[in-house]
Amino acid sequence: MPAPASSLPRIALVAVLAGAVMVAAPLAAIASQGLDPFDRLDALMLALAGLVVAGWGGYRLGARPLLRRDIALHLDEAGVTLQGADSGARLLWPDLARVELAWWEIVPPYVEDAEHLPVLRLVAHDDHAIAVNGAGVVSGQLARAFGISPPAAARTAVVGHGGLGALQQVLDWVGSHQPDVPVEVGAPPAL
């Protein structure tokens, strides 16, 4: 299922490139031409502005959203496996209390801008019945942000808008192959 955040913000790449040109061109002019003191000051101010633009772009590239990797979900007759960016969870069908699809407001640093996104939750009868793989930093942060346990966060998938078709397929599969598992679907918010 597709991640809600893009991998690299284009505006940040443009800012880094434009800032680099704004720094390099005036410095090259200072080094290669005999500029008078006022022109040299103008060139240094332009280079300083370029440094600010490039720094902002670099900051945006370094502060990328946490939810930028796709999620793998595998359903079979024994159970369900959810593999996120830094952790995964396996849950057998008898241990699954319900499947929830809700719309939550997801805010930075998880996505670039705050937005309502579909969230698939595999809710267990008991969190101790969950086999969690990996010590997920992102899952731990999601657990604190959403007020749920870390194993519950490992079974929670925030999906991009492009994944609505895949989410519908998951819900259809659960409904046809595991009819004893309740499926709760929330309506998207009216914004």
Automatic annotation (TrEMBL):
Keywords: Membrane, Transmembrane, Transmembrane helix
Segments crossing the lipid bilayer: 41-59
Superkingdom, taxonomy of origin: Bacteria
Protein name from the UniProt record: Uncharacterized protein
